[in-house]
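Attaching the record inline, Q. Sequence:
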Amino acid sequence: MIDSEGVCAEWTFPAEAGAVRAARAAVRGRLRDWGLDSLADITALLVSELVTNSLRHATGPIGVRLVRPADLGDVLLVEVSDPLPDPPLERVAALEDESGRGLQLVAHSSRRWGTRPGRNTGKTVWFELVVPR
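Structure, as predicted:
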């Protein structure tokens, strides 16, 4: 799909355990189609973290969107949306904690990241990755 923002792909997954696996597969497949295999591992990992957060805290569909902005040729924009309006909280996980590192991973692995309110409800967590030349 091509829209005013550039080339875009988006999916909606039910808030079920298989959503993480399905989102990873969809993202990897689209990046392969776009010739961006070099970003597949990190993008799939970060999407997995954000979809997992959505599954833990929200009850409703989870949206995943990839955008190659027309005006920023060296950027891949990735968005994960859910119906919960509360923004995620970045926290420092203790060594023995089994969770709580997802947003730290997003923050340290991406060029920029943030959150914004959803169009009608909920929120979107987004991050940018640099597309290698």
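The first helix runs from residue 19 to 33. The helical segments are 19-33, 40-57, 102-109.

More tomorrow.
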